[in-house]
Amino acid sequence: MKYHSGYVFWDSKESWESGGYISINTNRVNKECFVSSDLVVEVASFFSLDLETALNIIGEWIKTKIDFDFDYIFSDYGAD
Question: What is the C-alpha separation between 54 and 13, in angstroms, rounded?
Answer without folding.
Answer: 24
